[in-house]
Amino acid sequence: MPARWGSSRVVLTRMVLRPVVGRACAVGALVWIVVAMGGLGQALLTSAVVPDLDLLARMAGGAAGLGASLALPLGALGGVAAGLRRLAEERAWLGLRALGVGGLATAGPVAVFLAGVAGAWLVVTHAVEPASRTGLREARIAAAVRVVPVEGRVVRLGGWSATVDGGVLHFAGDEWLGRARGWAIEPASTGVVVRLEDGELRSADGGTRARFETLAMPVALAGTAGKVHASERTTPDLRRQLAVSAALGRDAYERWILWKRTLLPLCLVPLGLAAVPLALHGRRPLVGIVGAQVVTLWGVVRLCDQAIDAVGLPGAAAITVLAALAWVGLAWRGWADA
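User: That's the sequence. What structure does it adopt?
Assistant: Structure tokens below.
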């Protein structure tokens, strides 16, 4: 009897995981391609110059890493919902029920699958995604450094514009206008530094004028806000930054980002388990099921982002986890086939 039951469990696991994994790969690949292409397109649109092949490869690699951060969870949730719905539509679930197999037995293989994806997502959130964001930012900075002002043509770097007239650089940015006879563009952490020589600077309202021999103008690229965002730091780097932020009394949001990198992958397991009865029982649209789960978790996390100072890290973590667990309770409550 034990051997027969063990064999039955293997058969059940294969029946459940084959369609789940297959559809998870298909959904994940689709999401990954769409997000990666969208991220690459945005990087190209905000690039200061048309990137060469080396910059294009770096941008594509960063966009691909960002795509993985959405492809894994959406692929897993979509795979569970679509795979189990296939069991129901092909009457395989009806056959399993006739043999006395309930929803809890089906949830076992699904939980193992979700745990594996959650582990992979942990690696992505703590290392791959922030490194990809950094890679994209550095590629855009490298593109900006390659900007060469030329005679009669306006070039733009972030909020800074410049053109060359008669061998003299004329520039405008940050409410300042000026000209210089020498210039160079150097990389910085969130943008570039334009080094100017032998020129004149005046405010846009004309109230202030000054001449300079040398002047360094930091220019932040669009979307950087002039600083490295916490989401662009890998977990070890972010932990080091927290020591500085704590001394300044502004570490709550950065710590919350660090917590979210673990909390969100963990929430994938209850959300996926909630999809089991929703997919096997009833005819709810699969897109609606997965979409409602994603929107719920996204909305709760955004609210916690805004209220992190008020609710604190433990409170925000509890709210997020409870939102995921609520899906399990509501989905499984009263399910006759459990």
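The first helix runs from residue 2 to 46.
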